Structures are given as C-alpha cells and as structure tokens.
Amino acid sequence: MSSSDTPSRDGEADRRHVRVLIVGSGLSGLGTAIRLGQRGITDYVVVERGPDVGGTWRDNTYPGAGCDVPSHLYSYSFAPNPDWSRSFSPQPEIEQYLRTVADRYGVREKHLFDCAMTGARWNATEGRWYVDTSRAAFTADFVVSAAGVLAEPKLPDIKGISSFEGKIFHSARWDHDTTLTGKKVAVIGTGSSAVQIVPSIAPEVEHLDVYQRTATWVMPQLARPYLAPERFAFKHFPWLQRLIRALIYIAREAFVVTQVKYPRTGLILEAVGRVKMWLEIRDPQLRRKVLPEHRIGCKRMLVSNKFYGALDRDNVDLVTDGIAEVRAGSIVSEDGTEREVDAIVLATGFHVADSPTFNLYTGRAGRTVSEAAEAEGYQMYKGTTVAEFPNMFFLLGANSGLNYTSLIYIIESQINYIIDALDTMRQRELQSFEVKADAQTEYNRALQPKMARTVWANGGCTSWFLDNHGNNSALWPDFSFKYRRMVRTFDLDAYDTVPRAR
Ligand code: NAP
User: Fold this and answer.
1) Domain boundary residue among 288, 323, 346?
2) Where among 292, 324, 346 does a domain terminate?
3) How far apart are CA 243 and CA 181, in angstroms?
4) Is the distance from the beta carbon of residue 349 to the nearest atom of ligand 1 less than 6 Å?
5) Which residues are listed as membrane-spanning (predicted)?
6) Which domain holds residue 293?
7) Which of 56, 330, 381, 402 is the one with CA 20 to 30 A from 477?
8) Which segments of 39-174 does DSSP mark as H helices, in order?
9) Four-residue CA torsion sign, 20, 26, 31, 37
C-alpha cells in the first residue's frame, strides 16, 4: 500500500493521511479504485474487511450461484471479458473476473485486506475524516462508502431458531464443510438466491422443504454456453461484444416500461409466467401455491429454468403455511405440522437500506447515517451524497438501485460523479463540500411522486424496496440512462463549500 505518510494527530494515535479512503472492494469499491488511478489520483487506500476483492461475488458461493443479468452487460465497460463461458455467468467466473481486473489495473497494492472499518467521524476544524479500521488509522479528505447493498445477511427472527441443533447458515455464508447429501434440509425463502440454491441441492438431499412466505413471478432464462468460435469472435472483434452489450442494455431498459411507465403491460410477462408454470409443474396444487398474488415486478422477478422443476420433485415439498417455531431438530409450521430437519439454509436476503456500516459514520452534526435516516427517512441526494456528511460519497445509495439490469451501469455512473467532484474540488481549491439540506429535500420531493404509479407501489406486495416508512428508498424510478445523464457532472450549486486554507 502506498499512501502519503503525512502524520496527523487526533489525540490518540498516529494516522496516515490519504486523499481518498474507499470502504469496501466489491464491484463499487474496486471500480472506484481503478477509475481514480486512471484519472491520476493515486493517493487513495481501499479498506476491505474480507481477504480479497469481489464483495458479494466473493461471499456468495452457494451451490448454483450465478448472475441473472447477461454476462456481456455484467462487466465493467472499461474491462470487457471475451472469455465468459456462458450467456449468464456463474459466480466463480465473476469472482475470478474481478480478481483478474484488480491485477490488470494494479490496484491490489492500494488495498488493506482483512481490514474492517470500525468508525469514521468528520472533523469540521480540519475539514477531513478521521477513520479507524481494525488494522490502521487514517485521516482522509474524502470517504467513499462502497460497502455494498448485498453485504450484510438478514437473519430471520423466528421463535426458537437459536435452539436449532443441526447446521444452520445464511446463503451468503455457505458452510462448505457441511455436506447436505442424504440429509433432510430446509430452505427458508424463495428469492433470487433460493431459486438458484433449490435446484442445485434438490437432487442430492434426502428431502427438501422449501418455506415460501410470498410466491413471486419466475421468468425463463435464455441461458446457454458460448461456443469456442463465439469466444474467438468476442476476443478478436471487440466491437461485436460491444454491440451485443448495447443490444442487451436496450432490451433490459424495456422493463422500465412494464414496472414504471405502463405497469399494465406487465400482464404480458405474467402470461409468460403462467405458461411457464403449466409447462414445468405437473402437480395442480403446487401450481396454485406458486401463483403470485401481486403484479409482476412488484417484487424482484425471479429468473430460472430449473426452480419449478425442482419444486415438483418427489423429494421436495413447498411449505406455504408460515413458520411458527424452530425446535432442536425440526421446524413447526403454523398449521401445527412438525417437519424433521438436519440443516437449515437461510435464503432470507440482506440489510439493504439499513447497512450496519451506517452506524459507523458520524457526520458534522454528530449523528450517524443511521440516526439521520431514522429521523428523516433513508434519503440521499442523487443517490450519492447526504446532508451532514461532508466530503463523503455513497455508491449504490438511496434510490439508485435497479432490479432489472446490471447495477454496474449505475456504479459507473456514480463513479463519474465522484471523479468530476474531485476534479472540481481541486480546480476550485476547495477543502470540503456538503450537499444543501434543501437541495436534498427538493430532489427527493421530486423523486417520490414518480414512485406513485410504479408497480413497486401499486403491485400489491411488500418488498425490500420499501423502507420502514413505506417509501421506496431502494430503486431509481426511470430509465437508467437518465440517471447517468443526471450524475454526469458534479453540480456544485447544490453544495455548500469551504475553501482550502492557504
Ligand atoms: P430476497 O430477495 O430478499 O429474498 C428473501 C426471501 O426470504 C424472500 O422469499 C422472503 O420472503 C424470505 N424471507 C425473509 N424473511 C423470512 C422469514 N422470517 N420467514 C420466511 N421467509 C422469509 O433475498 P435473496 O434471494 O438473497 O436476494 C437478494 C437480492 O440479491 C436480490 O433481490 C437480487 O438483487 C440479488 N441477487 C441477485 C442475483 C443475480 O443473479 N443477479 C442472485 C441472487 C441474489 P418475502 O418475499 O415474503 O419477504
């Protein structure tokens, strides 16, 4: 790691000063590090709590893990990969891709691995952040929170769950030392992770109970391996891969029409979902159980060619009665049925809008990000900056998520904004910026009405898109290219600034 070693004192420890400190090295943090380097900003450090780059793609190693966004779109625009083996990439390939990219751009030496950020506080006098980590202490002119939205497993609060005596683990913390072969297994949850896990383990387990709280629409996937001549063409004619990427991007934007602009058009997709159910499930009772009661897109659509077939197997039961209690060796559903189980997989999702890292940043007013969100709702300015938190950027912050296409597109858009902000701060000789509270309020006031007619608000479901206040604080309610356009340049007018001391 190379950072300028300007010592600084906060009354307790020597600290290294860096211009930019990035928290997390998943797709967001790694991408930021690379782009900073390309821009000639080399005085930065990335603190990563895990042993390597990769974030959610390093952590989610469950059987069947893969991406349900097509491979050519699911990569950095500046680092296309002609070697994808399939049209939808399996997790090991994406993890390897991120490692390769980190090596190719030489950013590993800027990382501190196995290094958890433990606290960061804004020092208004000095106009910089004091950041503590498990391995070193820093001051930083700017902090980039790239801790990820799919980083912190959400564990269900079910009566008796701590008394379970078999193996129990979350999908993002798969216990590879435990073999499920020949065991009685329960999977709790039927989201995007579960639909990949269930078909992968069903053939090997003795019996599988899948606990479904809410049925969700499942769409087919045009998945296939790439042939050697195709990979040859991607390698030697890069324009071809770029063209395919552009076509996939445009096709995916069509989902904005069905979810945001004209939700009734989603009925066409629902018809596809119904046909799929009829074709893939023999048991009429099971078909009724998996038929969603909400409009398609209200919850994130699932994508799988194998999930229904797995549920239809003789050794698999779909339990829809709700879980009353977990006992030492069994799960009791609300109708009183007790089912024996040796291992439980919690495919129950993640803390998205309430990342534990938000407790660790203390801003200008002495409040943490969590406390500010608790008081005012989880909201940001353009999904990247927050009032009271000067010189700080959030990647994939409030209302910058997408549920139908590659999040890398949003991440790269936000990195553009960060780079332009840093350039602006340097050119104008500014020490700090803080988004004006009224700019943030106005931005969100204009944003929420766009949610009103979306299927996320009217589709008849609850989802992790909605926060504790019932607001959709997760998703961007428009075409993604409009988001990119909005954050193309750093709009200094929306910020209060302090000049650099001379
Ligand atoms: P998720 O979508 O949040 O699904 C969690 C599941 O657990 C839901 O079915 C939920 O039911 C259920 N659940 C939660 N708490 C429960 C409880 N106490 N009792 C019973 N059921 C409970 O989580 P995920 O499947 O891990 O996916 C999270 C996100 O990761 C996805 O939305 C997606 O963005 C991403 N992901 C992407 C891919 C990909 O291929 N790109 C793959 C996997 C994941 P309810 O529906 O009733 O809440």
Assistant:
1) 346
2) 346
3) 44
4) yes
5) none
6) 161-216+254-346
7) 56
8) 56-59, 91-104
9) positive
Any domain includes 462: yes
User: Do 278 and 356 reside in the same domain of the chain?
Assistant: no
The least confident of 264-268, 353-357, 459-463, 494-498 is 353-357
Q: Tell me, what CATH number does 132's domain have?
A: 3.50.50.60
pLDDT of 327 > 90? The answer is yes
Give the chain's domain count: 2
Distance CA 34, CA 421 (A): 16
36 and 120 fall within a common domain: yes
Rg (the chain; Cα; Å): 23
| Look-up of token digits 């009103």 | 452
Q: 116 and 14, same structural domain?
A: yes
408 is a domain residue: yes
> Are residue 166 and residue 300 in the same domain, yes or no?
yes
Clarify whether residues 167 and 299 are in a common domain.
yes
Q: Is 192 in the pocket of ligand 1 (CB under 6 A)?
A: yes
In the prediction, which pLDDT does 4 show? 39
Handedness of CA 173, 174, 177, 178 (dihedral sign): positive
Indicate the DSSP class of residue 171: G
Nearest C-alpha neighbor of 210 from the set 225, 230, 191, 190: 190
257-264's contacts with Cβ under 8 Å and 24+ in sequence apart are 258/296, 258/297, 258/455, 259/297, 259/403, 259/404, 259/454, 259/455, 259/456, 260/450, 260/453, 260/454, 260/455, 260/477, 260/478, 263/295, 263/297, 263/453, 263/454, 263/455, 263/458, 263/459
Same domain, 202 and 76: no
User: Distance, CA 4 to ligand 1 centroid (Å)?
Assistant: 43
Pocket test for ligand 1, best of 62, 93, 169, 193 (most atoms within 8 A of CB): 193
C-alpha 397/C-alpha 282 separation (Å) is: 43
CA dist 86 → 45, 223, 225, 226, 404 (Å):
34, 7, 4, 5, 19
DSSP assignment string, 72-103? TTSS-TTS--TT-SBSS-BHHHHHHHHHHHHH
* Domain assignment present for 236: no
Q: Is the CB of 396 under 6 A from ligand 1?
A: no
pLDDT in tens, 454-487: 999 889 998 888 876 778 999 999 999 999 999 9
- Asked whether residue 13 is assigned to any structural domain, the reply reads yes
Q: Which atom of ligand 1 is nearest to the CA of 68?
A: 40
Q: Which amino acid is at 66?
A: G
Q: Is 57 in the pocket of ligand 1 (CB under 6 A)?
A: no
Q: Assess whether the C-beta atom of 480 lies below 6 angstroms from ligand 1.
A: no
CA atoms within 13 A on the CB side of 417: 25
Same domain for 81 and 165, yes or no, is no
- Separation of alpha carbons 331 and 159, rounded Å: 10
